């Protein structure tokens, strides 16, 4: 199963664009800061990752005032068939 829930702050977004079929696309950067338990200790995490969303979710994300704190739901997948570079695809958020 490939599901993801990730909290963080959207710190950057590209200008809204549309697919050839007219669907809105959101592309941005999410900054996450947190801690996880690992090997009996606490590991501090700080990273940024690229995120993308389509349709209604993209439209809602595009309207947020940045920086925007969010909890994202989605999945991880390569950006395209030609690359293994991973993106977080957002299916919903609050």
Task: Name some characteristics of this structure.
94 residues, mainly beta, 5-stranded mixed barrel, globular
Please mark out the parts with pLDDT under 50 across 5 or more consecutive residues, or reply none: none
Mean pLDDT: 96
Taking the sheet with the most strands, its summary is:
5 strands, mixed, barrel
Global Rg: 14 Å
Helices and strands, in N-to-C order?
A: EEEEHEE
State the secondary-structure class.
mainly beta
Assign a percent range to the helix content. Answer: under 10%
Beta-strand content bin: over 45%
The tally of helices reads 1
Shape: globular
Distance between the termini: 22 Å
- How many individual β-strands? 6
The oligomeric status of these chains comes to single chain
- Read across the widest sheet, the strand sequence of neighbours is 1-3-4-6-5
Structure description:
With 94 residues, the chain is mainly beta. It is 9% helix and 64% strand. It contains 1 helix and 6 strands; from the N terminus they run E-E-E-E-H-E-E. The chain has a 5-stranded mixed barrel with strand order 1-3-4-6-5. The longest helix has 8 residues, at 55-62.
Brief write-up:
The protein is mainly beta. It has one helix spanning 55-62, and strands at residues 4-13, 17-18, 24-38, 41-54, 68-78, 86-93. Strands 1-3-4-6-5 form a 5-stranded mixed β-barrel.
What's the helix and strand layout?
Elements: E1 4-13, E2 17-18, E3 24-38, E4 41-54, H1 55-62, E5 68-78, E6 86-93
Parallel strand pairs: 4-6
Antiparallel strand pairs: 1-3, 1-5, 2-3, 3-4, 5-6
